[in-house]
Amino acid sequence: MADLKKNPFVAEDGREIVLKADHLCIQFGGLKAVDDVNLSIRRGELYGLIGPNGAGKTTVFNLLTGVYKPTSGRFFLCGKDLTGKAPAEINRCGIARTFQNIRLFGNLTVAENVMVGLGNQIPCSLFESMFRLPRHFKAEAEYRKKAMELLEVFHLAEYADHLAQNLPYGKQRKLEIARAMATNPTLLLLDEPAAGMNPNETQELMDVISFIRQRFGITILLIEHDMRLVSGICEQLTVLNFGTELAKGDTASVLNDPNVIKAYIGE
Amino acid sequence: MRHSKSFYIKNYLNYAIILVVLIVFTVLSLTGSAKLSTLLLLEKIAISVILSVSLCMVVGFLGELSLGHAGFMCAGAFLGGKASALLEPVLGNGILTLVISMLVGGFIAALFGVIIGLPALRLRGDYLAIVTLAFGEIIRSLVMNAPTSWFGGTLGLPTPKFNSKYLFIVAFLMVLACLAVTQNLIRSKHGRAIASIRDNEIAARASGVDVTKYKLFVFTVSAFFAGIAGVLYSYTQTRVQSVNFDYNYSIEILVMVVLGGLGSINGSIIAAVLITFLDVELQTLLPGDLAVLQDLFYALILIVIVIYKNAPGLKSFRERYNLRKLLIGRFAAAADAQSSTDSVSGKEEE
User: Mind listing the domains of chain A with CATH numbers?
Assistant: First the structure.
């Protein structure tokens, strides 16, 4: 009987569920790219989403960030229904993301990239900026200060005034995470953060990810192909194949699931 | 926050230069030693600068290709010009009439800016260029085909003339206003948001940037200043004719922005000054039958500039004789040397 009264946004172990996705589906013409995907991610968790190429992982990210609207199904952040909202609004509600192919603001400096991410956290209207009222100068100084603090965390402070497009690849990935963190999210979505990185950079990235978890207490959902990274840091996994869930559960048991091995390696 | 002197020079040198030019010619005009043709040239230059700086906001900073700038100018010229023609008998041909008609022209053009900004939210690149091009032509043909009593039809709308000794002062003040608004906007958090849309719209949305608001805002402000330029233009002519606002003119403004280097306000200003100067001078230099050569020379000069700006072989030459470095570098070096002897100089921050 107790089950009937159970709050759907509290997990069995009593932890809060930050992201809950119920039966997410999206169809492009006749193709079901994502079919009945359910996720429930607890606060502070590092959750992995893996699967072979074309399994629909990035499509799930695009659904969760409002780039696509789901054909059916809903998703909730901390109990708030975000289905069908625009990307900017979802971001302001607390979901930030990075991209598989890096999408920085290349002609802005590193600091400015983070400052765009900081968004409206420090109020200053268009009018105040256009006519250079005192609050503009105060806000600008504050933005710069906050951005530099964040860049320190990611060891990018020395590049603050470089153009983002001139950074080396590994640092661009880090900057993208920094920009996403600047939006002050509850949930961070990382789309293949280690793609194209060498083993050293991957190691450095793993350190950064565990550091920001500690420091900001953030919940992370991550897509990855690098199994070393997945088995090294993810706590829970969902495996997608052809848009459907193949397996889910804690990392060790999922990676040993014969179905998963079959999907990745074949028979 | 303290800034070093070089920071101020880098950011405010353009205001200073425009002010100096304005003061010099005001004195010349008051003492009667400036030729009327020189003053007319100054007016034309000021109009071009307003147009190119305001278009630079759309093309250079928002990253949208707009080919309808002459259309906004047309709306400003005719509706502002009509307002001044109506106001003239009541308020006289003074500064008040000019200011009110500039506001009327500016706001009506801004309204058109909102209307064109709406499709801009859905279209990108070439498609938006086509829509803006068509929009500019629509405004023009609407004005041309309206009843003759409204805008004078093909003959054009007769507009009052302001004292030509002083019109360029008003025009230059509008240049300063346009420059201040654009520059302040770009160098603020809103400017960063606008530039982020240009660099990567998807990432901008994912970072919480309100793309709709900023796109509409930029189109509106840019159209507002195009409208003001239109009213100023109507004052330099005895009759405003819609033929002058065809898409070739939009493209000419775009050329100024592109030649100046996309995303550079000062570049747009310099290009606007040079191109307008060339245009006017070639017209007077080539009398009679030689006038046909005007377009040829104009094209040749443009080609030379484009090659100079882009040829890889000229890279080292360009870097050595970079106008901006030479100009700002010299001022900044002198100022910094002085300030460092004065006291411990403030750290340069933005």
Answer: 1-94+185-267 (3.40.50.300), 104-184 (no CATH)
